[in-house]
């Protein structure tokens, strides 16, 4: 109406009734078209949404223009202005709805942990901005031009009937109204794009933050076939490759640990199964202690896994003990036992040197604590430092019970294998003197697990006492 004098000549009923009917039909058609859009692949929905909404506005404009031409005999000039107005309005609304569709697809992909397929040829963001800015410029300039043209014609027809100041006020008011309406739609689209951009960047930030904290099982939703989609895909590929490399490093570390620990055990009269059993005992105890409020914060899943992985290094210091002492079949003399006790410090020193050269981390720290303190006793009578109570690191207190239990139920050159019941009674006697009372309680709570581990990873040879006194709880 602001740009066409023919529309301005209609009564409100003649003007708005066809518009209301056409938009009602458009809304009904859009209801069915939306179902069609939602059945399309996710990668096509934004594009189809934009084209469909723009097409519906053009159809609505064509219907209105045809109606005015047939009923009121409006000229082609009026028809063109109606089509231009509907094109501008449809473009802005289609852009806004397409952006909202893009946002909902991103949320859907995030919830389902899926991604859009990417194509090598995508619509660059720079071109989107260029086209949108050009469309906005043409829309504002074009509509303002039509308004000015209409107002000039109006001035020609009115002549001196209306004061020039009044005409100026009317013209400026019309221009302000048109520019405000167009800029309102432009602002709505800018806000919609900012919302989507903020969401895409938040996906990226959340994933990278979790990666920085050590979690490599994260996924950035690929929610658009543009630069942001390709950045998300590249991020996912980088995280996947990092996870593979990390897994390889962990495997290499575990193999090296097991090989080093096995080398230490082969110099002793113990078997390689001792390494496996003790690390499982430690994990069983730690998982039980985690249920206690006093230990819940310290024994996270990550720490328990590190305890499990570092436990095999508890006797790595035995590589520094002479064979004459390490392999002696009888009881050690006091001097020999003094040398034997050095294996805890030897192992800790070796791991400390590794920390100094390679850099400290949680794994090496726990391994060093286990090696150094697994022979410490709760009452301070252990070695090498004579620590007492909670001054003994938790890792060492856990390994102390696991190591003693396995030594008791295993055959040695100086003793037969004890039954579970006998080993249990010895551990109970050491509650509060040799062992941390809380860890003894955890042992009692996981007694069945200890028996199962001992059976699953039993030595190949069994003794007569093992056969006659099977590992069963009391």
UniProtKB/TrEMBL annotation:
Gene3D superfamilies given in the database record: 6.10.340.10, Hypothetical protein af1432 (1.10.3210.10)
Record keywords, A-Z: Membrane, Transmembrane, Transmembrane helix
Ranges of residues in domain HAMP: 206-247
CDD domains referenced in this protein's UniProt entry, alphabetically: HAMP, HDc
Keyword Ribonucleoprotein in annotation: no
Keyword check for Transit peptide: no
Regions crossing the membrane: 15-33, 54-76, 82-100, 129-148, 168-193
GO process annotations (BP): signal transduction
Residue intervals of the HD-GYP domain: 249-459
GO MF entry, a single one: phosphoric diester hydrolase activity
Gene Ontology cellular component terms for the protein in this record: membrane
PANTHER family referenced in this protein's UniProt entry, alphabetically: CYCLIC DI-GMP PHOSPHODIESTERASE TM_0186-RELATED (PTHR45228), CYCLIC DI-GMP PHOSPHODIESTERASE VC_1348-RELATED (PTHR45228:SF5)
Record's protein name: HD domain-containing protein
UniProt source species: Neptunomonas marina
């Amino acid at each position: 109406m602001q740009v066409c004098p023919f529309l301005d000549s209609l009564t409100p009923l003649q003007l708005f009734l066809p518009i209301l009917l056409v938009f009602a039909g458009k809304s009904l058609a859009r209801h069915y078209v939306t179902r069609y859009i939602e059945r399309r692949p996710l990668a096509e929905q934004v594009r189809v949404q934009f084209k469909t909404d723009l097409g519906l506005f053009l159809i609505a404009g064509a219907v209105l223009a045809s109606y005015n031409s047939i009923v009121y005999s409006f000229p082609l000039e009026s028809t063109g202005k109606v089509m231009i107005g509907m094109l501008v309005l449809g473009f802005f609304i289609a852009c806004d709805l397409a952006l909202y569709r893009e946002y909902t697809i991103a949320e859907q992909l995030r919830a389902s942990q899926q991604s859009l397929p990417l194509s090598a040829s995508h619509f660059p963001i720079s071109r989107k901005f260029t086209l949108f800015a050009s469309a906005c410029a043409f829309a504002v300039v074009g509509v303002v031009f039509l308004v000015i043209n209409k107002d000039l014609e109006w001035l020609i027809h009115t002549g001196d009937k209306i004061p020039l100041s009044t005409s100026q006020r009317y013209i400026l008011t019309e221009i302000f109204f048109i520019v405000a309406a167009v800029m309102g739609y432009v602002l709505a689209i800018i806000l919609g794009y900012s919302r989507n951009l903020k969401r895409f960047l938040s996906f990226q930030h959340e994933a990278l933050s979790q990666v920085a904290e050590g979690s490599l099982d994260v996924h950035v939703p690929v929610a658009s076939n543009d630069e942001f989609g390709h950045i998300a895909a590249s991020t996912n590929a980088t995280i996947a490759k990092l996870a593979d490399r990390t897994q390889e490093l962990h495997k290499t570390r575990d193999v090296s640990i097991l090989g080093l620990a096995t080398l230490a055990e082969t110099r002793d009269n113990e078997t390689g199964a001792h390494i496996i059993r003790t690390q499982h005992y430690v994990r069983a105890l730690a998982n039980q202690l985690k249920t206690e409020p006093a230990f819940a914060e310290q024994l996270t899943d990550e720490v328990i896994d590190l305890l499990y992985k570092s436990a095999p290094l508890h006797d790595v210091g035995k590589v520094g003990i002479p064979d004459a002492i390490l392999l002696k079949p009888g009881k050690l003399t006091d001097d020999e036992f003094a040398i034997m006790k050095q294996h805890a410090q030897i192992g800790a020193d070796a791991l400390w040197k590794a920390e100094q050269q390679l850099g400290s981390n949680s794994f090496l720290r726990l391994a060093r604590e286990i090696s150094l303190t697994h022979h410490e006793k709760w009452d301070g009578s252990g070695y090498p430092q004579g620590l007492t109570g909670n001054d003994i690191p938790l890792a060492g207190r856990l390994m102390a019970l696991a190591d003693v239990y396995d030594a008791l139920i295993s055959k040695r050159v100086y003793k037969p294998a004890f039954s579970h019941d006998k080993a249990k009674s010895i551990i109970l006697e050491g509650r509060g003197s040799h062992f941390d009372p809380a860890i003894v309680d955890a042992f009692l709570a996981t007694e069945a697990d200890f028996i199962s581990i001992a059976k699953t990873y039993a030595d190949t040879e069994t003794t007569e006492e093992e056969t006659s006194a099977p590992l069963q709880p009391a």
